[in-house]
Amino acid sequence: GGTSDPNPANNSATTSVTVFPTGLPPILWMDGFGSGADTIIPTNDGMIWTLGQIHSGQSERDEIEVYRSSDLKYVRSISAPGLSVCYWCGIGHDFAVTPDGQFYAYFNGTQTVVYRTLDGKLIWNAPRGGGSYYSLTDDGGHLAFSGGEIVDLASGSSITLSGSGAGIISPNGQWFAAPISGGVRLYRVSDGSYIRTLSAAVVPGYSSAVHINFSGNSTELVVSDAMNMWIWRLSDFLLLQEFSVQSVGYTGVGFSIAVTNDGQYVAALGNGGNIWRVDDGSLVAHLPTSNAPGYSSGQPYIGAAFTPDESRLIGSPLFAGSLTMWGVPDGVQATPL
After folding, report:
1. Nearest-CA neighbor of 323 among 24, 108, 55?
2. What is the pLDDT at residue 32?
3. Counting runs of H as helices and runs of E as strands, what totals does the chain give?
4. Which helix (H) or strand (E) holds 28?
5. pLDDT < 70: residue spans in the chain
6. Could you give the maximum distance between any two Cα atoms of the chain, in Å?
7. Res 165: pLDDT
8. CB–CB of 10/116 below 8 Å?
9. What is the per-residue pLDDT across 133-161, written as a single tens digit (0 to 9) for each?
10. Predicted TM-score of the model (pTM)
11. How far apart are CA 53 and CA 47, in angstroms?
């Protein structure tokens, strides 16, 4: 299943808000309609990976863009020919990147590809994939993508989890979670075995949960549909909290969820947003809609992510060529470091 580098070493309350310019050259802008919004991935080197578009005359193409998380200044672009995007898909991401930023993966229109960031070397590829369901483990050892397929990138071998469908792999590589009608199905990656189903009363009219995320330390699983958010502790599968996200919903499912690396805080962004503390269930901040230029009535957010140090929440507003940043946990306006 695919080609791989034979050398494993080579595979290896309402608050104010500040909107920072992206700092892009005039020909570039961060597209907030799907292909620049619902994929925001912080890396441990202080960067934010997201999607943008290059516009030239009447043509355009998607690319991966990297920003500095402290002040949201543009750092670099990574060409991603044929990059396939999915508007407002909350199950996974249009591309995946490891926490150290050393490897990234996406579907280029004909095949799934994995590259090493340092030199752009192709590590693995296979003529299958697509959709918005890409996730990589912390060590860059495993890739999960559409159809419940998990690939060992060192050997190139893969397994497909029976009955799973689309889902994501946990950062530590232990779990695979796939939304189904009535909850989320959990698998063990090492042998592909089904572990259990975590039940959630999904809103009628939706076949499954629409957003799913692991905490960075892989101890919690966060799932939501158009109305509610559930947080489970994976050590004993205890349901820790259930929050209503109906107030931040936008056109049904058009919002994003985020969880800090330590699982202490979760957030939902859409028409404004909320930040909750998981241990006691308290709402610690309510966030307004975006005041980004060019949208006078305030626009919703369709992308969300916490920075790795858990000190800031970053949101991507619909249509705007900018990102928005709040302090955590109080939600007060962020100040560039």
Report:
1. 24
2. 28
3. 0, 30
4. strand 28-29
5. 1-38, 52-61, 84-93, 131-132, 162-165, 201-210, 247-255, 290-299, 318-322, 333-337
6. 55
7. 66
8. yes
9. 788 999 889 999 877 889 999 898 988 88
10. 0.80
11. 19
- C-beta separation of 315 from 273 below 8 A: yes
pLDDT recorded at residue 254 = 54
Is the previous residue joined to 300 through a cis bond, with omega within 30 degrees of 0?
no
Contact between residue 124 and residue 114 where contact means Cβ atoms under 8 Å apart: yes
Q: Cβ neighbours of residue 151 under 8 Å, at least 6 residues apart?
A: 1, 2, 124, 126, 142, 143, 144, 145, 157, 158
pLDDT (0 to 100) of residue 81: 83
pLDDT at residue number 316: 78
Radius of gyration of the chain (CA): 19
- What one-character-per-residue DSSP string does 87-134 give? TT-BSSBSEEE-TTSSEEEEE-SS-EEEEETTT--EEEEES---SS-B
β-partners of residue 17 are none
Beta-bridged to residue 14, according to DSSP, are: 286
**Pair of tokens at residue 72:** 């949201």
pLDDT reported for residue 206? 54
Under the phi-then-psi rule, with left for phi > 0, alpha for psi from -120 to 50, and beta for the rest, what region is 53? Answer: beta
Q: How far, rounded to the nearest angstrom, does the alpha carbon of residue 4 sit from its chain's CA centroid?
A: 25
CA 68 distance to own-chain centroid: 17
- The contacts of residue 251 (CB under 8 Å, 6+ apart) are none
Angle formed at CA 131 by CA 130 and CA 136, multiple of 5 degrees: 85
Yes or no: say if 256 and 248 are a contact pair by the CB < 8 Å rule: no
Question: How many CB atoms are closer than 10 A to CB 34?
Answer: 21
Q: How many Å apart are CA 230 and CA 281, to the nearest integer?
A: 11
For residue 1, give the nearest of 194, 145, 183 by alpha carbon: 145
| Strand, helix or coil for residue 294 | coil
Work out the end-to-end distance of the chain between its first and last CA atoms, rounded to an integer number of angstroms: 45
Helix then strand then coil, in percent of the chain rounded to 5, is: 0, 45, 50
Task: Reduce the DSSP state of residue 210 to 3 states and report it.
Answer: coil
Q: How many residues does the chain have?
A: 337
pLDDT of residue 236: 96
